[in-house]
Design brief:
Blueprint lengths: L1 E3 L27 H12 L1 H9 L5 H12 L7 E5 L5 H10 L7 E6 L9 E5 L7 H9 L3 E6 L9 H22 E12 L4 H11 E7 L10 E9 L4 H9 L1
Parallel strand pairs: 1-7, 2-3, 2-5, 3-4, 5-6
Antiparallel strand pairs: 6-8, 7-8
This protein binds S-adenosylmethionine (SAM).
The site of S-adenosylmethionine has 22 residues, from helix 3, helix 4 and strand 3.
């Protein structure tokens, strides 16, 4: 397993960013944590850059940067985006697979409503709902070339609980991936550093040619957020294996 630190200092600035910190005065009923959040947003060069470039989230830069480095997004791919709101990853992926030129397909799912993105098929639903995997599979109408998950459950502030919640989401994403991914496909998911990831990573190493941990520069340095990128899917899909056994 290699840890791909994609260039530069993690949580650094995008090219061309200037220093001019904004401080938020304690206003009325604003809680201290909200004040800090607002201050961080106002001073975050990626937030500013995302606004300038018309990206819906600073997360867009994470996908852009990971793909610049590992080149897993390709023209004409069929992709699933789990936890897609507000749509930054969909925007980047759409450009890179040529969606506006009629190439490829993206289906995204989120608990939250997402404003339409040209060509992207959007579903508002809990991915953990029993019917979600079947609905996504039906919309895909065939194998996927990549499954991406940036899903993050609301944090409780309790580190261990938060880690277990994100692992549960990632495990469900892996299970779904086994049902839909085409041979050679990729899986990209958000994880957080912590003990429980080891088993998940071992599972992925069995089924993919290459498994990497990636911390893009746009991922805040003070966060334990980490992505796992698995490429070269080599396991037979559950559906196909079942068919083989029956034959
Ligand atoms: C960090 S945001 C994703 C940002 C997105 N990649 C972008 O570029 O705009 C995480 C998303 O995961 C979604 N999410 C968390 N749990 C989910 C679940 N069980 N089903 C569907 N979406 C979920 C949240 O609603 C949230 O919008």
């Amino acid at each position: 397993m290699s840890t791909g630190k994609s260039g530069g200092k993690t949580g650094g600035k995008p090219a061309g960013a200037r220093d001019m910190r904004v401080k938020v005065k304690k206003a009325g009923k604003l809680k201290h944590s909200s004040q800090l959040w607002l201050e961080r947003q106002l001073n975050d060069p990626y937030v500013k850059r995302a606004r300038e470039m018309g990206y819906r989230s600073r997360a867009a830069f994470k996908l852009e940067e990971m793909d610049d480095r590992y080149k897993f997004l390709k023209s004409g791919q069929r992709l699933v985006d789990l936890g897609c709101a507000p749509g930054g990853w969909c925007q980047i992926a759409a450009k890179r697979i040529g969606l506006e030129q009629g190439k490829g397909y993206i289906v995204g799912i989120d608990l939250l409503a997402v404003d339409p993105i040209p060509g992207v098929d959007l579903i508002q639903m809990d991915f953990m709902a029993d019917e979600a995997p079947a609905l996504l599979t039906e919309r895909l109408g065939g194998r996927a070339d990549g499954v991406m998950s940036d899903m993050a459950a609301n944090t409780t502030g309790h580190k261990k609980t938060d880690h277990l919640k994100i692992i549960a989401l990632a495990e469900a994403a892996v299970e779904f991936t086994h049902d839909v991914l085409a041979p050679g496909g990729f899986f990209l998911a958000k994880l957080f550093q912590g003990g429980e990831s080891a088993e998940l990573l071992a599972m992925l190493k069995r089924d993919f040619t290459t498994v990497r941990n990636v911390k893009p520069a746009a991922s805040r340095a003070d966060s334990s957020e980490l992505y796992v990128l698995a490429t070269g899917y080599r396991r037979k899909n559950t559906e196909d294996s079942g068919r083989d056994e029956a034959e």
